[in-house]
Amino acid sequence: MRRADRLFRIVQLLRGGRLVTAHKLAEKLEVSDRTIYRDIADLIGSGVPIEGEAGVGYVMRAGYEMPPLMFTRDEAAALVAGARLLQAWGGTRMGAAAEEALIKIDAVLPPAARANARSSHIHANAVATMTPQARDLIDRIEAATESHRCLSLLYADAAGVLSTREVRPLGLWYWGQVWTVVAWCELRNDFRMFRLDRIRKMTLSAPFRPERGKDLAAFRTAMACRDAPSGPRDAPPDLDIHANSVPGSGSEA
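RESULT FIELD:
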């Protein structure tokens, strides 16, 4: 994390009259207590109204405002709703990032817009199926996608038949209570969506180099072709992916 980003996060964590110890800040930001002491001293020196001392904790005096962003009321409500949805249905890492985003959104809004955002009536609650294991699986797939690592899957289709797949993860799609990973399937030599709730076992495999025709841009093109009123004659006949249908047994054939 860049030092500028860390200083910004310290300011956000101290907002709202919260007394926070240096050790707690260090754990949150994954740095040493000594680094936090130096950062606090630099923030105070730059004019940020932080009070406290080592061993007791730090708090920011009321009235300190970051420059407001020009969010409309609807934009702020949309951001808050999106963050709440990720907290409820995303991976552990997504949920933590959404929580930090809510803090930052709250911090930069002018008082009136902040009050409107806080009063948003849009909420989301994860059902029992969103287990810690499910959240962890989302995090692992997201990390593999970012690092271009293949995944070895033991996968069950709609009938419960198991198969082993070697795939290149390209992205995560959420369909409303159903997460899928968009991937290039080496077995089918084509794009496929795999429902996360049907993955019985997953391990990291070899790195892969992004290739034209096997990337997310090509997948989107294939989706658009399938959605056309009369798709192109050369569209792959076994491309069982359709943007207008919730993934089912056909999407991971």
